[in-house]
């Protein structure tokens, strides 16, 4: 009984209270053990996450903490916890990747293989070159190739972008190159991106650029400065093309420029001897150092390599009289001078002189393009009919296009001209010379004959030229400068060494060119008019005059030629500027073409 009383409850108990008393001590020990166990597991897991290596970077916790800059401290804690959270629960972040440093102006949609972005405000060359890029791992030095790394410059912010696995963004504000899906760190890590030349023709700029950059993380500040420089250059190019789009190329003046001419005098053996004033011992050189400067813009200097790229796989054809031959020879010399292997530039039939045949074609083999010249001084056919004495007399068929028309109708670029032969005696008098059908006019005013001939030309263009394929230009009348008489009556220009500087001495706009403009208005096909009449009128100093043959004394020169040449132009010289105008027209044309495509 005493033993029973020993374990009895003081206040009277029952079975429940007895069991509670017996279990209280073990329960306290289990709670303490669980608490210690949880703390131990938490420390182990945290330590594992902190020091375990990641395939793309160092520890997302400690590395990022110690690499924080002062500027990042206030904004980085969320990203640190996010990194740990993503390691604990990797599936939870799928498809939620952000691009925090993409400029709001230039938000870009990623595309897969071989995509090129043809934006209206920043169009690119029709066939830009894509190249693979590689990323070198800092720890394993392994190469990971992209499926296709296509580089496109956003017109507003100049962001460099890549496709698919390495989607890299250039921050417009601070020029820092960032990788979106993986951060590449370490002093020795580098990304070698696009070491091949990629050709990029900006829709608004129309300027050929070669991008040959090696991007290294350790030299990021250096890349940043280059990026800013490229952006400045791009903005300058954009402004240049904007000025071209709203500029009258033909309202301006000649200015001295010591960087001219476009090719070294005496370096081009293809120039007709009678145009090669430098080789023919012309004593002054000021005529070589002149550049045409429109009042409302600055023309881009003719980049021969870029122009050949524009002409790649195409035919550029000049059709007209010897003034167009002047322009054709100028362009051949400019383009040929830029080609490294001169043997790959040649006249199709092996000719080296260009005065006797009706057709010449220069081939630029590396570019698979042709630059050709067809002789057609009136653009309509020269003809013959029987006269009353049983012989034949020459006539001009105002109703028939020139004989060679079928040979050049499929060209990609056509540059026409006519004018000077309409000042000769037969054409200016117009007696028994102009023919339509079987009828030879007894007399017809030269201006009316010119109108009918150009109308025939215009109708042929509308009927046979596809404006979607062929760009048609017409170069206007080139001014002559015969002083003291006409070309056949003692007119001279050999004493001229300076351009006209006072506009009051310029001649009125030719009535034939007014007729030409009226013909343009009646055509369905749009024709680009190279109105060079005024710009050539200033250049009384630019003609060969008596310098048409080498190794002659002044007395021999004056007696050698019955007439001075004050119509054609020395080369290098004025026709080089015509080709710079042609180059600018091609840039504008390409811009308009890309703009139409982007609006479809």
UniProtKB/TrEMBL annotation:
It comes from the Eukaryota. Residues 299-584 form the Trichome birefringence-like C-terminal domain. GO terms for cellular component: Golgi apparatus; membrane. The keyword Nucleotide-binding does not apply. GO terms for molecular function: O-acetyltransferase activity. It is a single-pass membrane protein. The chain crosses the membrane at residues 32-51. It is found in: Membrane. Keywords: Membrane, Signal-anchor, Transmembrane, Transmembrane helix. Residues 246-298 form the Trichome birefringence-like N-terminal domain. InterPro entries: TBL, TBL_C, TBL_N. Pfam families: PC-Esterase (PF13839), PMR5N (PF14416). Belongs to the PC-esterase family. TBL subfamily. This is Trichome birefringence-like N-terminal domain-containing protein.
């Amino acid at each position: 009984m005493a033993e029973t009383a020993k374990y009895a409850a003081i206040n009277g108990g029952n079975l429940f209270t007895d069991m509670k008393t017996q279990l209280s001590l073990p329960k306290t020990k289990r709670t303490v053990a669980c608490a210690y166990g949880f703390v131990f597991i938490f420390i182990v897991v945290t330590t594992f996450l902190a020091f375990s290596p990641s395939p793309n970077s160092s520890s997302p916790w400690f590395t990022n903490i110690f690499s924080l800059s002062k500027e990042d401290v206030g904004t980085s804690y969320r990203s640190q916890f996010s990194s740990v959270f993503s390691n604990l629960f990797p599936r939870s972040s799928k498809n939620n990747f952000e691009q925090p440093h993409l400029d709001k102006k230039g938000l870009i949609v990623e595309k897969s293989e071989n995509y090129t972005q043809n934006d209206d405000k920043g169009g690119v060359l029709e066939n830009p070159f894509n190249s693979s890029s590689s990323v070198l791992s800092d720890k394993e030095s392994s190469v990971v190739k992209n499926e296709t790394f296509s580089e496109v410059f956003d017109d507003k912010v100049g962001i460099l972008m890549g496709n698919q696995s390495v989607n890299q963004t250039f921050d417009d504000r601070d020029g820092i190159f960032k990788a979106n899906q993986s951060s590449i760190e370490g002093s020795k890590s580098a990304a070698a991106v696009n070491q091949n030349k990629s050709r990029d023709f900006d829709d608004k700029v129309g300027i050929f650029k070669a991008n040959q950059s090696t991007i290294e993380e350790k030299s990021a500040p250096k890349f940043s400065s280059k990026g800013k420089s490229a952006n400045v250059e791009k903005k300058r190019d954009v402004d240049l093309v904007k000025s071209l789009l709203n500029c009258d190329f033909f309202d301006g003046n000649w200015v001295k420029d010591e960087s001219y001419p476009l090719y070294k005098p005496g370096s081009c053996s293809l120039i007709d001897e009678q145009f090669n004033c430098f080789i023919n011992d012309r004593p002054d050189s000021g005529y070589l150092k002149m550049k045409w400067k429109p009042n409302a813009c600055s023309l881009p200097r003719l980049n021969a390599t870029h122009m050949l790229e524009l002409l790649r796989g195409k035919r550029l054809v000049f059709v007209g009289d010897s003034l167009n031959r002047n322009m054709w020879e100028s362009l051949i010399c400019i383009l040929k001078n830029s080609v490294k292997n001169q043997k790959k530039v040649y006249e199709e039939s092996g000719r080296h002189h260009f005065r006797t045949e009706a057709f010449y074609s220069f081939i630029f083999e590396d570019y698979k393009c042709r630059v050709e010249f067809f002789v057609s001084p009136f653009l309509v056919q020269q003809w013959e009919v029987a006269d009353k004495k049983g012989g034949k007399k020459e006539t001009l068929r105002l109703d028939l296009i020139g004989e060679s028309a079928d040979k050049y109708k499929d060209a990609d670029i056509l540059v026409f001209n006519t004018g000077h032969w309409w000042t000769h005696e037969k054409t200016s008098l117009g007696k028994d010379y102009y023919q339509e059908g079987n009828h030879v006019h007894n007399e017809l005013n030269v201006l009316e004959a010119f109108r009918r001939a150009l109308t025939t030309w215009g109708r042929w263009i509308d009927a046979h030229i596809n404006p979607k394929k062929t760009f048609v230009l017409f170069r206007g009348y080139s001014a002559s400068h015969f002083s003291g008489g006409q070309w056949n009556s003692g007119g001279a220009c050999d004493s001229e060494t300076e351009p006209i500087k006072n506009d009051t001495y310029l001649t009125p706009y030719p009535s034939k060119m007014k007729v030409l403009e009226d013909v343009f208005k009646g055509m369905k096909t749009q024709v680009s008019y190279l109105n060079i009449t005024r710009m050539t009128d200033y250049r009384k100093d630019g003609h060969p005059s008596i310098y048409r043959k080498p190794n002659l004394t002044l007395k021999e020169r004056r007696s050698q030629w019955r007439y001075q040449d004050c119509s054609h132009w020395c080369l290098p010289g004025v026709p080089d500027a015509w080709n710079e105008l042609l180059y600018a027209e091609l840039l504008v044309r390409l811009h308009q073409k890309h703009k139409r495509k982007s609006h479809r």
